[in-house]
Design brief:
The protein has about 280 residues and is α+β, with helices and mostly antiparallel strands. The protein is about 30% helix and about 30% strand. Strand 2 and strand 3 form a beta hairpin.
Length: about 280
């Protein structure tokens, strides 16, 4: 099929491939793009307390986690905070402009906040150092470097990998002075209680599901759905921003595929963490 036809009739161009159960990039409908992850000081951000770079095909996302000390709020005296923020700088795609975060970045930040909350990946109590006095705040900045669709899967993966790379110094409170003393020589990894993994699908012509959509596929789709599962195969959340409805049977199919994808991602993360020597 010609490039001209793809430009003039992109949807018809795609339909001809989908009829043959494949996609223009050569993938099957249920096939993910090549996925890679780099963790910590292997080319990620050296100034962060934990970092990771994830590539999903061309989509490239970096996550840096910065830990700071703060006083817990009165109503959550025994809890720390996790503050995620997703950014789409104009360099990552023609579709984004410089300036304050647009709608898509805000929606992605909210999605990540929901994943953290619903999956209970980190117990906020684990971030408390001294009840009512001192707790950790984890600022998780997720920045897209190259946007080619399926940003939610890549962002969730980058966040999880970066958090697994975090080493927090031990902190004690001096009883006499009441001031905090940080021991940078003694560092402990974060306790990650759950490993949420996102799996996204694009819906074509209201009925056909394709996994890990590119930016072009997202633009042509009649809807998208993202399923987040944890280690036990439990559903953490289903994110469906409008678009064509999805039947219960189709959703069940998505969940089954998401559980399989979770195993692959977890295996990939474990392998990379093993190869990274602690600082």
């Amino acid at each position: 099929l010609s490039v001209g036809f793809r430009t003039v009739e992109p949807l018809e161009y795609y339909r001809r491939f989908l009829k043959e159960n494949c996609r223009p990039d050569g993938r099957e409908l249920g096939e993910f793009r090549a996925t890679t992850v780099n963790i910590g000081n292997t080319g990620s951000i050296t100034t962060a307390d934990g970092s990771a770079l994830v590539k999903l095909g061309n989509t490239t996302v970096i996550c840096g986690v910065k830990a700071e000390l703060a006083t817990p709020t009165a109503d959550s005296a025994d809890k720390g905070y996790i503050v995620p923020n997703v950014e789409f700088p104009s360099l990552c795609s023609m579709r984004f402009r410089s300036g304050p975060p647009g709608e898509e970045a805000q929606a992605a930040s909210q999605f990540i906040a929901d994943v953290i909350e619903n999956s209970q990946m980190i117990a906020k109590e684990d971030l408390c150092i001294a009840n009512g006095k001192l707790a950790w705040v984890l600022y998780c900045d997720i920045i897209c470097l190259d946007y080619d669709g399926n940003i939610l899967d890549a962002s969730t993966f980058a966040l999880l990998a970066a958090l697994k790379n975090v080493q927090l110094p031990s902190v004690t409170i001096n009883e006499e002075t009441g001031s905090s003393e940080v021991n940078l020589k003694q560092k402990n990894p974060l306790i990650i209680r759950k490993h949420p993994v996102a799996t996204s699908f694009a819906i074509f012509d209201d009925t056909l599901l394709i996994v890990d959509p590119t930016a072009e596929e997202e633009d042509l789709a009649t809807g998208t759905v993202t399923v987040v599962t944890d280690d036990e195969g439990r559903l953490c959340s289903v994110h469906k921003p409008g678009g064509s409805p999805i039947t219960g049977a189709k959703l069940q199919d998505c969940i089954t595929r998401a559980i399989t994808r979770h195993k692959e991602v977890k295996k990939l993360i474990d392998k990379v963490i093993k190869s990274v020597k602690p600082k």
